[in-house]
Amino acid sequence: MDGDTLMDNQLELFQDTESMDFSKDEGSKKCFSCGINRPLHLMQSFWYNKNGTASISNICKICAKEQQKVVQKLKRTTPEPDDKYKCPICLKKKEELPEKRRYWVLDHDHETKKFRGWLCNTCNSALGWLNDDAELISRALSYLIKSK
């Protein structure tokens, strides 16, 4: 049994944690990915906003690690696009993207774990905010068309 499989098997033991009694002092948050209510220390990241309020990621560390493994595997098997490539959504080339976001993001289906394509960070984030939901995206498109 290789190390990754052993780790996966160990992590599976913690997947069903809804019945665990978490410290009420610490608080908990529902993971957007697995839907399990987890203590805050098991959520992916914690940072402070400019106004001093704390923010915690919507994904737990277990799901984030699994997602990272999928992306790393897909990156090893899928070469990055060449300099002539354009984002298939906004049609911008790499040099047309904002300087701080001048890179391609590997887009994949979170359910099937299959590679879909390379997108600019903005378009990939937009799909994420719309939950990769074609019906929701269609309604957003209809809304924009009607408002013109």
Query: What would you report as the Rg, rounded to the nearest angstrom?
Result: 19 Å
Please provide the count of β strands. 6
The sequence of SSEs as H and E is: HEEEEHEEHH
Instruction: Give the low-pLDDT segments.
Output: 13-24
Through-space gap between termini: 59 Å
Strand arrangement within the widest β-sheet reads 1-2
- Give helix % range: 25-40%
Sheet/helix structural class: alpha+beta
Q: How many strands, which pairing sense, and closed or not: the largest β-sheet?
A: 2 strands, antiparallel
Query: Rough shape?
Result: globular
Number of helices: 4
Mean model confidence by pLDDT: 83
Percent range for β-strand residues: 15-25%
From the structure above, extract its key features.
two-stranded antiparallel ribbon; alpha+beta
